[in-house]
């Protein structure tokens, strides 16, 4: 795994604060919509808003088209192992699992599905976790 430059990641500029506020506002607005219409909020969350906003920020930061393409493709593959959670979690909650227990179980299952996806895709020449 490549070295992660934590000092760059954890230093914030004024532009970073603006990005943070805009990104957080999207999440808060969708959460507020959920109070009145859970289907509309689900639709809004299902849209790749986070990925689109992240790609806009990447483009604004001067990232190359290749890096943006890699990000978009990686996002596609990383979404797949998270999808079962959206069926398993509601099933658990409807069958009297406590929220935190169900959420923890789903996080663990998603980690397992993630590594399974990585393993399977490597057999087809797609390496999501290059060394």
Question: What is this structure, in a nutshell?
Answer:
The protein is 73% helix and 0% strand. The protein is an all-alpha fold and 131 residues long. The relative contact order is 0.07.
Q: Which descriptors apply to this entry?
A:
single chain; 131 residues; mainly alpha; globular
Percent helix, as a range, is over 70%
Taking the sheet with the most strands, its summary is: none
- If you compute it from the alpha carbons, what radius of gyration comes out, rounded to the nearest whole angstrom? 18 Å
C-alpha geometry: globular
Order of helices and strands: HHHHHHH
Uncertain stretches of 5 or more adjacent residues = none
Secondary structure tally: strands:
0
Mean pLDDT: 90
SS-derived structural category: mainly alpha
In terms of DSSP E residues, the strand content is under 5%
Helical run tally: 7
Instruction: Report the span from N to C terminus.
Output: 5 Å
Describe this structure in words.
It is built from 7 helices and no strands. α2 packs antiparallel against α3 (38-46), α4 runs antiparallel to α5 and α6 runs antiparallel to α7. It is mainly α and 131 residues long. It is globular, with a radius of gyration of 18 Å.
Tell me the layout of helices and strands.
Layout: H1 6-9, H2 14-34, H3 38-46, H4 49-60, H5 65-79, H6 85-94, H7 99-122
Helix pairs in contact: 2-3, 4-5, 6-7
